[in-house]
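Protein modeling request. Please complete all fields; requests missing the sequence field cannot be processed.
Requester role: graduate student
Desired output: 3D structure, token encoding
Chains: 1
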Amino acid sequence: MKPAFCNSMLLALALAASPFHAHAASNKPSASQAVEKKDDGVFLKKHEAILARGKSGPIGLLFLGDSITERWHIAPHIWDAYYGKYQPANFGIGGDRTNHVIWRIEHGELDGIAPKLVVFMLGTNNSLDDTAEEIAAADRKIIGMIRARLPDTKILVLGIFPRGPRDRTGKPVTEAGVEEAARRMRTIEAVNRDLAQLDNGRDIRFLNINTVFLGQDGKIPNTIMPDQLHPGPAGYQLWADAMQAPLLEMLK
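Delivered output (252 residues):
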């Protein structure tokens, strides 16, 4: 084998083995990169509705996140009873990853508003494809974006909620599904440990209420999260009760 050809082969093999080459080949955006969600137009319609809410009147209490936040609409009686008097707004969009919320903020969702408090939780949809370090870094970036755009607003950072084994199609959960849920939870717990360090006791607080969703066996009862991911009305009641004391303190 000629030396030049040998050297070329060695270089090609090295590039193929390189993590940088592998990342480029996968072309997966980082968790901290702004990405517009490509779907059937629902994402942009919801984004436009959020922009319209920001222009329609004052916001005193803002919830920012994914479907777990968005689905407060299934428990309107709890939402109104606990938050109605604070001019609340729900900026949750189902399926959002950190990338999508970064894009949303970059495209004006926090412009022209001045809430007293933002309740922020995000990352469960990243928990299969991104590392805990990547998700935590993205959440930290979003919190920084909130601070930059809303310097007088306090932020209540919630630990990412627990999730259990699930099959999106409703079929029985397989062993692979159980393993995936455990892997996701290891990532979520590591993210929450990282985010807890942001609590400064003043304008950024961290709250982990995950134990309230668990039964005595350590699992999530179906009465609390029927699909092992999204709270049902009983789950939202637990959320509201567990968050009430720090929320009231931060709204003073």
